[in-house]
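Hi everyone,

Forwarding the result from last night's run.
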Amino acid sequence: MNDLLGPAAPSFDDPLEMLQACHGRITAQCDTLQRLISHLQTQGNDEQAAQAARAILRYFETAGQYHHQDEEQDLFPVLLASGDKTAAGYIERLLGEHKEMAQAWHALRPLLQALAEDSANTLDADVAAHFIDCYARHIEFENSNLLPLAKTLLNKEQVIDLGQKMSKRRGVSNG
């Protein structure tokens, strides 16, 4: 049955896979943002554009925030506690990137809000491109480096604990 429906979505039982799957959803939101720029150039700020702006806002203000909290409050501390110097270097880089992404969001958010409220007809393509680029670089590095390393450093109990904390953050029962 799994073959017919495709692979099952990762669950809180596999929090590292869940983090990686979240990266896929972030990339999809960035793709929507890219399409929004093109749409605005040809169609202006119609209802479809406003809906896209609202969806991007909603995602990055909820799931996107949870994702960063999962990493900064739960995953990174346990990896740092392992004493692994490579993990520490990766985390230092990723925390810097989180700050850069927060600044990029701070610049993009009011532009999307104006579109969502129908008080603007355009979106600064450079601001949007910077936001997209920040996330693309971050996701590529994290998926290629930190998450594979985390799979080798975390024991079963740490993985279970990480999944429980992620579940609790979202108000979802995990068990």
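The helical segments are 2-5, 15-43, 47-61, 63-81, 85-116, 125-153, 156-169.

Cheers,
N.
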